[in-house]
Amino acid sequence: MNFRQLEYFLAVADAGQITAAAHQLHMAQPPLSYQIKQLENDLGVPLLNRSANGVTLTPAGRLLQDYARQLVDLRERADSQVRSLGQGLAGVLSVGVVSSSIGATPNAKLRTLTRHYPKVQIRLFEDNTYGLIDRLEKHLIDVAIVRTPFSAPGLTSKELTTESMVAVVPHKYDHFAGATLRVEDLAEVPLIIYRRFEQIFQTTFDQKGMQPFIACTCDDARTAVQWADARMGVAVVPRTVAEETSGVATSIRAIRYQPWRTTLKLVWPTTITPSPLLQRFIDSY
Asked: Boundaries of each HTH lysR-type domain copy (predicted)?
C-alpha cells in the first residue's frame, strides 16, 4: 500500500465511479482499476462493491477511507512544514474554526500577513469545539479557534474576545418592555438555542425555577439566527453571531445575566514548539 494507491482509492470513493475518477485523475480507466485491485489484494479484503451503476464502499472500504484521508493530509502537511522550516514565509497552515467565530477571523493582521507572504496557504476545517480539539490532539490541524466552555489541559491558549449572549427576537415576539432582557423574560417565548450552550442554559433555568419551551436545538449558531429570522422563535446566541447574521425581521436584545458569557480562544498543543509559520499566525491575533 502506497500513497498513490490511497489517492486513487479516495478519488474513486468520492466519485462513486471508476470512469469518473479516472477522468478527474487524467488517466485511463484500466490502470486505475488495476491499482485499486492491487490495493485490495495487498490488504486481503474487498474495498468496493462494483455494479453497473458505479461503486460503493464495503465496510472495510469505509474504514480505509477515514484512515486514507488522515494519511494523505498528514503527508501534505509534513511536506509543507519541512519545506518551510525556519522561514515561516511559505507553506500550508491547517486552521480549525467554530461556526460561531464569525467576525473574529479573518482579522486585519491576518490579512496583512497573507498579503506580505502570498505563498502562505491557509486550510480551514470547520467543526464544533470538541471536534477541533480532537483534531489538534491527533495532529490533523495546527491551531484552532474554539469557544468556551471546554476542558483541554493539553492545550496552550490565547484569549481573543469575550462576549455576552443576546436574544435575536422576531418582531412577532417583540413584546418586551425594555431593550435589555432578563433571563426571566425568556420564559414565555419559544427558544432556539445553540447546542453548544444547552447545558449552561438549562442549569440557569433550573436555578431560576423556569421551564421555557425549547422550540429548536441546533449545532450551528448561524442556523439558530436563521430560524429566528423565519419567526420560529427567539434565538439565544453570542453577540457577534447575531450582529453578523441577523436580518431586518428581527431585533437584537442584550440579556442582563453575567454568567451567560463566552470567550473565543486560539489554541494549539502544549507539546509542540510552534513553527515559524504557526508563530506568525498566532502573533496575528
From this structure: 1-58
Domain residues for the domain of 96 are 87-161+264-283
Backbone angles phi, psi at 25, to 5 degrees: -85, 0
Would you tell me how many other CB atoms lie within 10 Å of the CB of residue 219? 11
55 within 8 A of 32, measured Cβ to Cβ: no
Cell numbers of 205, please? 433555568
Q: Are residues 147 and 268 in the same domain?
A: yes
The reply to whether 99 falls in a domain is: yes
Cα dihedral 220→181→239→196 (10° resolution): -30
For residue range 175-200, list pLDDT tens digits in order: 887 789 999 999 989 999 988 899 99
Same domain, 119 and 255: no
The per-residue pLDDT for range 63-106, each reduced to its tens digit, is 999 999 989 888 887 776 666 555 556 678 899 999 888 766 66
- Cβ(181)–Cβ(267) under 8 Å? no
Note whether 35 and 91 are same-domain residues: no
Q: Is the N-terminal amide bond of 106 cis, ω within 30° of 0?
A: yes
Residues 167, 157 within the same domain = no
In whole angstroms, give the CA distance from residue 105 to residue 107. 5
Task: Please check whether residue 123 is in contact with residue 77, taking contact to mean a CB–CB distance below 8 angstroms.
Answer: no
265-278 residues labelled b (16+ CB within 10 A) or e (exposed)? bbbbbeeeebbebb
Please state, in angstroms and rounded to a whole number, the distance separating the CA atoms of residues 60 and 281.
39
Residue closest to 161 by CA, chosen among 102, 213, 114: 102
8 Å CB contact between 244 and 180: no
Asked if 155 contacts 133 with a C-beta cutoff of 8 angstroms, the reply is yes
